[in-house]
Specification:
Elements: H1 3-13, H2 17-31, H3 34-45, E1 60-61, E2 63-70, E3 74-75, E4 80-81, E5 101-102, H4 108-117, E6 121-124, H5 127-139, E7 148-157, H6 159-183, H7 198-207
Antiparallel strand pairs: 1-5, 2-3, 2-4, 2-7, 6-7
Helix pairs in contact: 1-2, 1-6, 2-3, 2-6, 4-6, 6-7
Pfam family, one: AbiTii
Domain AbiTii: 15-196
Protein name: AbiTii domain-containing protein
Length: 209
């Protein structure tokens, strides 16, 4: 069985997406594709928080949940949804609504763990975001119960959306292996090609879109 056959089987059957990507990393090294190697590295280690992510990693619309601080009674127990409609109408098309957007920058190992237990991806809000929201409450830009401010908040991306990101990664690996099998069936083998041909590059480029 050749390397690409093993990679096809892994993409379809191996539970760990990280293990599948480590095989892609080895393939990239053997065929001399720095582009493919960099993609596998980013998927394994995660993307920069402020950098570009592939379209299959977002940004996605998500839900916001907040913990209120009450003038009387202190911090309220539990988290409550904060729908976009709570914001003044003139703010609903503003950049402020980016608090409802999530780009999935996490390593695939972390995503696999979330998928395994069916949990959402959670992004806590920073102090600057919370201060801004509380100022909006003060001036009437955000409707909350009288005497309430926000003590903490987080953005949640549903577990099924996280699962789709992982599926997209695995589908790209499968497409890569099947595509290379057509144009360079011995790619990845120890005695296979050590440089990327134009046909191989075309397959790789489609994988990374």
């Amino acid at each position: 069985m050749g390397f690409l056959d093993m990679l096809i089987d892994a993409a379809r059957q191996v539970p760990s997406t990280a293990d599948v990507l480590r095989a892609v990393h080895l393939l990239a090294r053997r065929i001399g594709s720095a582009e493919l190697e960099a993609w596998a590295d980013r998927e394994l280690s995660g993307y920069p928080d402020d950098g570009h992510v592939p379209s299959y990693r977002g940004p996605f619309h998500s839900e916001a949940h907040v913990r209120y601080r009450r003038v009387v009674g202190g911090i309220a127990p539990g988290l409550a949804p904060l729908p976009p409609t709570a914001f003044a109408e003139e703010l609903r098309e503003s950049k402020l609504m980016r608090v409802y957007e999530v780009s999935v920058v996490d390593p695939v190992d972390d995503l696999d763990d979330l998928v395994r237990v069916g949990a959402p991806l959670v992004r806590p809000w920073g102090g600057v975001q919370i201060d801004l929201i509380n100022r909006l409450i003060d001036i009437g830009g955000l409707a909350v119960e009288p005497g309430h401010t926000i003590a903490a908040a987080e953005t949640r991306l549903a577990g099924d959306r996280v699962a789709k990101v992982v599926d997209s990664v695995r589908s790209r690996v499968l497409g890569l292996a099947l595509g290379l099998e057509r144009v360079a069936p011995d790619a990845g083998d120890e005695d296979g090609p050590s440089t990327v041909t134009p046909a191989m590059h075309e397959v790789i480029a489609k994988t990374l879109v």
